[in-house]
Design goal:
- By secondary structure, the chain is α/β, with parallel strands linked by helices.
- It has two domains: 237 residues, P-loop containing nucleotide triphosphate hydrolases (Rossmann fold, 3-Layer(aba) Sandwich), CATH 3.40.50.300; 236 residues, P-loop containing nucleotide triphosphate hydrolases (Rossmann fold).
- It is 32% helix and 26% strand.
- The strands form six sheets. Strands 8-9-10-5-11-12 form a six-stranded mixed beta sheet, with helices on both faces. A six-stranded mixed beta sheet has the order 18-21-22-15-23-24, sandwiched between helices.
- Strand 19 and strand 20 form a beta hairpin.
- The longest helix has 16 residues.
- The relative contact order is 0.10.
């Protein structure tokens, strides 16, 4: 229960009395597992009406899972959840929304082909008695909501796909507050916002909490959390490890809570390095995120690229490989200048990439395992327009065995494999062209512990054979398990480079937070 001072109507303060009110949200011993892996371990948390609680933790700590349980997207395995004193048994997000719970995710869900007003009231169109949507009323209502999020100058009839990412993020928040929520969950809400837009957002949050709305603020930006939250709680490995008033904590204390005591990591050991510079990157910059980047990578070296959400890790990888247009910069591989901005050219010069999210840019879901592996080298396996299937099968079979891909037959569809084996097939595709520089974006994301260890071994073996490897990872244990060196990005800048003997969790995180 929370104590609140209440002033009798017309009182002068002398007659104020204390009443006890239930918390807006109460979690008791909440657990959640995915298969054999328990990702939430007996979480206990209470949030008062009108309170802003910052929810912090490393990637994979359980923050989003916990809030997905609260919002109804996931169900808890055990434990109890109460909203305003009533026990919740949510079967869906829709049920949670009906009770006033709104979860604004970091990933945009706006529909670009619709107008701003249509996006705000999507699913709740304002219709007249005839059932026809009253566009004028839609626009009028949208103007009021837009003003509340600092977009009073935005045309409600404008198409959403003409807006900046920051404006679209504010549209997402506008959608969530059309009907005043009781609990508003914001996941990295300022990741796409300018400082001016972020200030507007935090003024809105304070207006909402003044009306009794409770807010959960998931963020990696420690200064923002300290400045704008009443209380900050930290999850580590699925456990709630600290809860402190924002006014009584510091960035340093929060980092310690997030990483805990230093752990022992199983590094692969020194690689048989050639010692010569294989890759030279100068002044690399994309159109949107990256400040000019300089980086050298030796033959046989594994360089980890660490950064928080929005730091520019993926953008850097994609610009090197040609998925994204480079604004400036040069790339040299063994002193050969590789033109930027064209994937086939990058492949020809010896680059290969295993992208983040194998289901989006990785696997070809309707094709066989062997075709998924051989597609990177299909031109070499083709004669007079016909694929030499025997040679394709032999090459794919050799790599499948080398990388321990568990399957019945190379001709089966790749979607029939486990996530870890799908990921190893994407690795096999990259390795098939014998690259000089291998780009890995979150290489072990979404795979089990056993598959992760096998993937680490693959990376280690490739480096020992002299391949240069650049690994973008949001997991510090992965950085320590793989890297000869760690470079850290923050807000699109390369802010530091740490040799193996200089690497600590604290140093890496301090660099990662340095531009926030």
């Amino acid at each position: 229960m929370y104590a609140r001072a209440v002033e009798p109507s017309g009182g002068n303060g002398s007659g104020a009395f204390i009443v006890m009110i239930p918390p807006r949200l109460r979690l008791e011993n909440v657990t959640k597992s995915f298969g054999p892996v328990e990702v939430l371990h007996g979480v206990n948390l209470s949030i008062a009406p009108g309170e802003v609680v910052g929810l912090l933790g490393e990637n994979g700590a359980g923050k989003s899972t916990l809030m997905n349980v609260v919002s109804g997207r996931l169900s808890a395995d055990t434990g109890e959840i109460e909203l305003d004193g009533a026990v919740l048994k949510l079967a869906s997000i829709k049920e949670g929304m009906g009770l006033g719970i709104r979860f604004v995710h970091q990933e945009l869900s706006t529909i670009g082909s619709l107008s701003v007003a249509e996006n705000i009231f999507l699913g709740d169109y304002l219709a007249g008695k005839s059932g026809v949507i009253r566009h004028s009323l839609l626009v009028e209502k949208a103007r009021k909501v837009l003003a509340s999020v600092g977009l009073e100058d935005l045309d409600p009839s404008a198409s959403v796909d003409t807006l900046s990412p920051g404006q679209q993020q504010l549209i997402e928040i506008a959608k969530a507050i059309v009907v005043k929520p009781s609990l508003l969950i914001l996941d990295e809400p300022t990741s796409s916002l300018t400082s001016f837009e972020a200030d507007k957002l935090f003024r809105l949050v304070r207006d909402l909490t003044g009306e009794g709305v409770s807010v959960v603020f998931i963020t990696h930006k420690l200064d923002e959390a300290i400045s704008n939250c009443d209380r900050i709680v930290v999850l580590r490995d699925g456990k709630l490890v600290s809860s402190e008033l924002a006014s009584e904590t510091s960035k340093q204390k929060l980092i310690v809570h997030m990483i805990g005591k230093s752990s022992e990591f199983n590094w692969r050991g020194s690689a048989a390095r050639v010692g010569e510079t294989r890759v030279s990157i100068r002044n690399l910059q994309d159109e949107t995120v990256l400040s000019p980047i300089d980086l050298d990578i030796d033959a046989g070296e594994v360089v980890a690229l660490f950064g928080l959400v929005g730091a520019g890790r993926t953008e850097f990888m994609e610009t090197l490989f040609g998925f994204r247009k480079a604004k400036n910069g040069t790339l040299k591989i063994d002193n050969e200048t590789c033109p930027l901005g064209h994937v086939p050219t990058a492949v020809r010069y010896g680059l290969a990439m295993v992208p983040e999210g194998r289901k989006v840019r990785g696997i070809l879901p309707s094709h066989s395992v062997e075709r998924n592996i051989s597609i990177s080298n299909l031109s070499a396996l083709t004669r007079l327009g016909v694929v030499r299937q025997g040679e394709e099968r032999r090459g794919a079979d050799f790599l499948s065995k080398s990388l321990h891909i568990r399957m019945e037959d190379g001709r089966q569809e790749i979607t029939s494999l486990s996530g870890g084996n799908q990921q190893k097939a994407v690795f096999a595709r990259a390795v098939m062209i014998k690259p000089r520089l291998l780009l890995l974006d979150e290489p072990s994301h979404g795979v089990d512990v056993g598959a992760k260890a096998e993937i680490y071994q693959i990376i280690s073996d490739l480096a020992r054979e002299g391949m240069s490897v650049l690994v973008a990872s949001s997991e510090l244990p992965e950085v320590f398990a793989l890297a000869d060196r760690c470079v850290v990005f923050s807000c699109g800048e390369l802010v530091g480079s740490l040799a193996r003997d200089e690497m600590t969790e604290e140093k890496i995180l301090q660099l990662a937070f340095s531009r926030h």
